[in-house]
């Protein structure tokens, strides 16, 4: 996979408004609500104020809420327009004194540790790895940023749901069959190819990098199989859907079919 071109900052900056719009959809809001739930579970395993690295954190949608709880957050991203949104959101929330932004790629993360730092307590890398050309190298670099005993959370689209959603929502078994062994899938939000990464392969890369995977979560186990998107805008239906998704996110076998897989790992060496 190392010969696959990496998505450039321009890919993400030119689609920043489309990303904003996606975040406001019911399925976008559910994604962030569910990840907030799983990340909060991780933070509870740590004691006191945490140093958090949001690698490829874009506008800070996953990590700024942690700054609002008093944690120190560093957001690293190579897309200037999205980082500007993160700074604006931090100012609006009154937490800009707890937030540092760094314009750099995820591959530069190992170089960002300040002299004498022992590493971050929590590293988030959400919706990023599938845009990078070398998954094992990216995971190894992220692992170096975590202190021993610290946690790393990785999230990416689930290839299983790629296929099921096409077959069910589009009623297109032929198109789904064509995707069965495909290495990449086109992202409509960012108009760029993204790798179809299996959670097991990323888990193996984490283990090789000195981390022990402790949890796997499924983010949006049922939502993407419901073809009626208008119904998801209905408050009562959305509330029922959220309750269901929260119950399924750590429950077998449902988490295996979710739109996104999320792995939580502890760095042990």
UniProtKB/TrEMBL annotation:
Keywords: Methyltransferase, S-adenosyl-L-methionine, Transferase
Pfam hit, one: Methyltransf_25
Transmembrane parts of this sequence: none
Keyword Transmembrane assigned: no
Highest taxon, organism lineage: Bacteria
Single annotated GO MF: methyltransferase activity
Domain Methyltransferase: residue ranges: 52-150
Residue runs in coiled coils: none
InterPro entries: Methyltransf_25, SAM-dependent_MTases_sf
GO BP terms in the entry: methylation
UniProt cross-references to PANTHER family, sorted A to Z: METHYLTRANSFERASE (PTHR43464), UBIQUINONE BIOSYNTHESIS O-METHYLTRANSFERASE, MITOCHONDRIAL (PTHR43464:SF19)
Protein name per UniProt: S-adenosylmethionine-dependent methyltransferase
Organism from which the protein derives: Salinispora arenicola
């Amino acid at each position: 996979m190392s010969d696959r071109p990496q998505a450039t900052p321009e890919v993400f900056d030119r689609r920043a408004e489309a990303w904003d719009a996606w975040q406001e959809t019911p399925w976008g809001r559910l994604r962030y609500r569910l990840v907030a739930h799983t990340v909060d579970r991780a933070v509870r395993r740590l004691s006191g104020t945490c140093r958090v690295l949001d690698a490829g954190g874009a506008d800070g949608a996953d990590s700024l809420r942690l700054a609002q709880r008093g944690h120190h957050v560093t957001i690293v991203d190579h897309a200037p327009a999205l980082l500007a949104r993160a700074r604006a959101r931090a100012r609006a929330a009154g937490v800009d004194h707890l937030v540092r932004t760094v314009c750099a790629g995820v591959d530069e993360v190992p170089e960002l540790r300040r002299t004498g730092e022992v590493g971050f307590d929590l590293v988030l890398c959400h919706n990023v790895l599938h845009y990078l050309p070398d998954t094992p190298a990216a995971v190894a670099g992220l692992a170096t940023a975590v202190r021993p005993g610290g946690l790393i959370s990785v999230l990416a689209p689930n290839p299983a749901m790629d296929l099921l959603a096409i077959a069910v929502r589009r009623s297109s078994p032929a198109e789904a069959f064509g995707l069965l062994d495909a290495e990449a899938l086109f992202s409509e939000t960012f108009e760029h190819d993204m790798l179809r990464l299996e959670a097991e392969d990323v888990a193996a890369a984490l283990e090789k990098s000195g981390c022990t995977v402790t949890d796997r979560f499924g983010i949006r186990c049922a939502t993407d199989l419901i073809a009626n998107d208008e119904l998801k805008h209905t408050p009562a239906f959305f509330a029922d859907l959220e309750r269901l998704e929260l119950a399924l996110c750590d429950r077998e076998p449902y988490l295996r079919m979710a739109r996104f897989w999320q792995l939580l790992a502890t760095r042990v060496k």
